[in-house]
Amino acid sequence: MSALDAAAPRAREGRHAAWLELFFDLVFVAFAAQLSHGLHGDPGLPEFAVFLGLYFPPWWMWCNLMVSANLFEDDSARRRFLMLFAMLCLAAMAAAVPEADSTRGAVYALGYAGTRLVLLGLWWPATRFPEPHRVPRWRPLSYCLASGLLWAASAAVPSPWQYVVWAVLIAAEMALLLTARGRGVPGRLNAGHLVERIGLFVIIVFGESVLSLITSTDHVWTADAGVVAVLGFVLLAALWWSYFDFGSTAAEQVLGRAEGVRAYLMARDIGGFLHYFVTAGILCMAAGLATAVEESGHAHLAGGPAWALAGGLALYHAAHAAIALRFGRSPVAVAVWAVPGIGVPVAVALAHQVLAPWLVVLLLAAEAIAHLLYARTKAARLRPPAASSTDDPRAAS
Q: Which residues belong to the signal peptide in this entry (predicted)?
């Protein structure tokens, strides 16, 4: 079998993440730590803007590489070398994050340019697929090669104009993607693999939150720090429970029913655009929780960590509300949980000057638990009753 045959789309029911994909994700463990660490302490609007700006390129590249692995089940040595080179490029970007807005911007830009060339190498064989799976050559040449060359050129642009160039390049890429509307996708996306990969990334950012709690408690070994850390763990556990019991399950059902271009558009919007905000919210919470533990002995939590923690939770719920609406849920049904899910954290952040760190985390944990209980109650109410042994088995279907 040739490499082209191995990469060609075919039916892959019940497919799971490959070892190469899991190894590749390790670089994002470091990326999550670097980005979250930039929000430790008392961040202001510039720090939040830098965080969101530096997070999008690696997140978007991860999405692109995930889709290529989803469409092309190829375990050739060629693909392995390409993915390992992408890991090196992303590792360089992660190392540049602390000073990417100043002295290390060129390294960040060149690292991202390298990942665009990897993407070109992964998609170029699809330009030789038989019809109807063939990809027009202009698409990888414009989306991957031209973008990579422009990112490389941006390394020579001095700040702050360098960041303007990055913003323009990202906007142009999004415009190209949105206008394509699924044309040129060689085959059908595997919904189960897609949802599993996104879930694994969510686990990575939850893992950064847990690690932040542990390391901060180690630095501030007091009873107050222990209380805040335990409450923070309860908050994260409730979010994990609701995400993987309800969010990922609903996504797999909706994406599994979608066909053709609609499946691609749903995957792009939910897995790409909206999960950027889901994961960004969790990373903000990781930073806020770390600072809350470190400031556990203070009379109140400073504004920066309060907004990182409570604002991160509000962003997390807002992104899930947008996902539910994209699924086709009723705006009224979504508002029932989305309004308190966003409103309570925002109110907590606004009142941070009169709330002790432990109380801030307690209120947010209580909201997350209430959200989980509502979701479980709603699911139990909608679940059809099981048929008894004497019933016609067709009645339960």
A: none
| Residue 255 near residue 195, CB atoms below 8 Å | yes
Give phi and psi for 382, each to the nearest 5.
Answer: -85, -15
Which tokens is 210 given? 């847990």
User: Tell me, what amino acid is at 360?
Assistant: V
pLDDT per residue as tens digits for the range 146-171: 999 999 999 999 888 898 999 999 98
Q: How far is CA 349 from the centre of its chain?
A: 23
Which DSSP helix (H) or strand (E) runs through 329? none
**What 3-state class would DSSP assign to 55?**
helix
Token pair in block for residue 30: 């470091």
Residue 286: which of 256, 269, 309 has the closest Cα?
Answer: 309
First to last CA, the chain: 42
* Tokens representing residue 83 in the block: 């993915």
pLDDT in tens, 341-394: 999 999 999 999 999 999 999 999 999 999 999 988 887 877 665 544 444 332
**Count of CB atoms within 10 A of residue 48's CB?**
18
Pick from 247, 256, 252, 254: nearest CA to 282: 247
What single-letter DSSP state applies at residue 269?
I
